């Protein structure tokens, strides 16, 4: 295995671990003020959290590009074809995928949402085959199939079945699958040309934040909503979670750029397991034996997909 491929695999695995932690803490945040308030002036909890989550991430990536002296060059590339491709991916992955994901976390819980949404590598594999003409070989399909079994195992665990699931929550969770699958494939096209992962992530987070601002302006009172969050102690927790999310995004984009969207998404899918693990370790959730089998299947699927040369 080449060093470049090894670094891509490590980045993919890290993206899953970090996103699992991000998911757990987002669930905690949505149960805190002001997200539990009922006020017509206040934006929806999922939309408001998404704004701050990606907004803080955009600020952090701006600082990183300034530190590396890449911000000026990135601005010059905003009119390039690659940048427009990444902007499209940003809308699909952020306002569509992330907003749907956080809505589902609020509606049916972090664990079940993670289980459903982590099926997106299967959709991404099909899209990669259709759009990028990638060759999806037998070991890759086996690995993706095991990944599906793993996330189904998580969804069938006792803790998940006891959640206050609603049909709309399930449907919205599947919407995040579509958004993130399209983002993975489309973003890989943008980074094949003149954008590196950090530049692509900066564009993604900035565009996503601007779209969220537009939604909140039309749907509620922007000033009231932003002030409501900034006046609460939860702001610092959101900032910390945004750091986790930024590192996860960055590793995911690096993995896409290095080993391709199919391998990257297959490794990133482990966040479904990690979200449950963090809920057990940090949230006091009860351990379920089905989780152990699901984790084993997830590891096997990741190894199959990540080590196959033809993927």
From TrEMBL:
UniProt cross-references to InterPro entries, sorted A to Z: AA-Vitamin_Transporters, EamA_dom, EmrE-like
Residue ranges constituting the EamA domain according to the UniProt record: 7-155, 168-306
TM stretches of this protein: 44-63, 84-102, 108-132, 139-156, 168-189, 201-218, 234-253, 265-284, 290-306
One CC-aspect GO term: membrane
Gene3D superfamilies named among the record's database cross-references: 1.10.3730.20
Topology in membrane: Multi-pass membrane protein
Top-rank taxon: Bacteria
Pfam family, one: EamA
Protein's cellular compartments: Endomembrane system
Key words of the record: Membrane, Transmembrane, Transmembrane helix
Record keyword Ion transport present: no
Entry similarity comment: Belongs to the EamA transporter family.
Protein name: Membrane protein
């Amino acid at each position: 295995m080449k060093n470049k491929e090894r670094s891509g695999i490590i980045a993919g695995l890290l993206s899953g671990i970090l996103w699992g932690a991000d998911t757990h803490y987002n669930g905690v945040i949505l149960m805190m003020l002001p997200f539990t308030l009922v006020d017509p002036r206040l934006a929806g909890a999922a939309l408001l959290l998404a704004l701050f989550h990606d907004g803080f991430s955009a600020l952090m990536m701006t600082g990183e590009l300034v530190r590396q002296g890449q911000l000026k060059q990135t601005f010059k590339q905003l009119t390039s074809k690659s940048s427009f491709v990444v902007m499209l991916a940003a809308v699909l992955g952020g306002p569509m995928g992330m907003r749907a994901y956080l809505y589902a976390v609020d509606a049916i819980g972090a664990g079940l949402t993670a289980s459903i949404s982590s099926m997106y590598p299967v959709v991404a594999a099909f899209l990669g085959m259709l759009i990028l003409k990638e060759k999806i070989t037998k070991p890759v399909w086996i690995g993706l199939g095991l990944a599906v079994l793993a996330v189904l195992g998580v969804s069938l665990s006792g803790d998940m079945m006891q959640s206050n699931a609603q049909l709309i929550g399930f449907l919205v969770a599947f919407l995040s699958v579509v958004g993130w699958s399209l983002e993975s494939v489309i973003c890989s096209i943008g980074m094949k040309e003149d954008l590196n992962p950090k530049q692509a992530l900066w564009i993604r987070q900035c565009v996503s934040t601007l779209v969220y601002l537009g939604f909140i302006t039309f749907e509620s009172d922007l000033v009231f909503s932003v002030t409501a969050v900034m006046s609460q102690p939860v702001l610092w927790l959101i900032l910390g979670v945004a750091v986790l999310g930024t590192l996860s995004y960055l590793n995911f984009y690096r993995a896409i750029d290095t080993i391709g969207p199919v391998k990257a998404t297959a490794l990133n899918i482990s966040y479904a397991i990690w979200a449950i693990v963090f809920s057990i370790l940090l949230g006091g959730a009860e351990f379920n034996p089905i989780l152990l089998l699901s984790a084993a299947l997830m590891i096997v699927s990741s190894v199959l997909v990540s080590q196959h040369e033809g993927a």
